[in-house]
Design goal:
Blueprint lengths: L14 H36 L3 E2 L9 H12 L11 H4 L1 H10 L2 E6 L2 E6 L2 H8 L6 E2 L5 H4 L11 H14 L2 H15 L3 H4 L10 H9 L7 E2 H18 L7 H20 L6 H7 L6 H15 L1 H15 L6 H4 L3 H13 L5 E6 L3 E3 L2 E3 L4 E5 H5 L2 H4 L38 H18 E5 L7 E3 L3 E3 L4 E6 L1
Parallel strand pairs: 1-2, 3-9
Antiparallel strand pairs: 2-3, 4-6, 5-13, 6-9, 7-8, 10-13, 11-12
Length: 473
Amino acid sequence: MAIVIFGASPAAPPWSLLYAIGALAALWWAWRALERVWIRPLRLGRALRAQGLGGTAYRFPSGDMKEYVRLAMAARSQSMPLRSHAIAPRAVPFDHSILRQHGQVAVTWLGSEPRVILSDPKLIREILANKHGQFGKQRSTAWIERMLANGLTAHQGKKWVVHRRIINHAFHLEKLEVSSKSATCCIMNFSIRYYPILACFETELIRRWHDSVGAGDVDKIDIWPEFQNLTGDVISRAAFGSSFSEGRRIFQLQSEQAQNAVKMVHLMYIPGHNRRAETVLLRWNGTTAVLLTWTMVVLSMHPEWQDRAREEVLRVFGKSQPDSEGINHLRIVTMVLYEVLRLYPPILLVSRETYQKSELGGVEYPPGVTFTLPIVCIHHDPDVWGEDVDRFRPERFAEGVSKASKDAPAFFPFGWGPKICVGQNFALLEAKIGLAMILQHFLFELSPSYSHAPCAVSTLQPQYGAQIKLKKL
């Protein structure tokens, strides 16, 4: 039985013990922070340098982030010469600068996290083709992925296999043969013959351009938003059977969600996370829209190739609708698209993280090291493609992709290995049909208002749009 004596105060709490526990907890958290932002980076840096790797030294606390931002802002502040295709210094200025200074394998720091920039095609193939679990997507980007939809690229292991099988079904060859008609109908008003739902006014690209052109030239049409709308329509109808106009609100919400995520990335700098977060957002816009946009820009710069591609299209199809059988005979068009994908890859870089202690190229890497694979730098490497690497030469693909480069293969516009882009065949098919239809109906050239400024936003996009003058044939 408890006896309460009125007027007596309860026993005083052991404040000294609480203070001691609080002090120990503070010391423990301080040690963890010191270990993460100082001791571990210095230890990792010494271990990698001891194995012969070059690169930058760790700078507390943000690593190379300040230099990364400085180079990016400087690159975006001015446009490129009009007919220049040497886009790497503008699109990925930091990665390009590091590779020029330190060679094909270089260590950099984003915050306290080591990032190895890698441009050796053989090592890149080894990473992307890995099936044993040493290399995977960055786990540190989960916070940004939760803001977006968890798509195929967000999954690993068994979950990825299940989702890959589901997505593969949508892009099966039989589906694509049907969707080749869908892509054609989305460009012309012949859509009613195949799919009544394809008669939406937003899908009639060629008709809309015809109406805009009238009897003469259009001063300018910004083809970038035009192709964004077109490819969104085609993919939603061909793969999922839905209408872009009916689902416009969903697309708008997704776009707003991605934009808000980008804003948060820039507003909330977490050392070592920002660049990787941009990598997660890299696939939000359709690669086909990017490919068609840069193809029209490049063919406007090189009218001789525009004429050759048009002659081939008219020889194969005349003025008839392109079909899946005839598309296979467009050799010059295919070469043009491959060369544009080399010079202007929609996805500028791919990143992987070591999940366990891994050996690559004679160097041992601990878990938690990020590899950045700058596709655009590899596609513009003179040691791989020759001294004419920055020239537009579709004939380099005359014998196929495997013989186009000195190092076969070194062409990674859709990635490589088991996680290569599931929609690559669909994207190329859609691009061939779209380009063929445009060549059938229009001559085109750059508008005087066009400014050549490729930049990395989510994909490789024209910073100031892509203004093109059209003339009906």
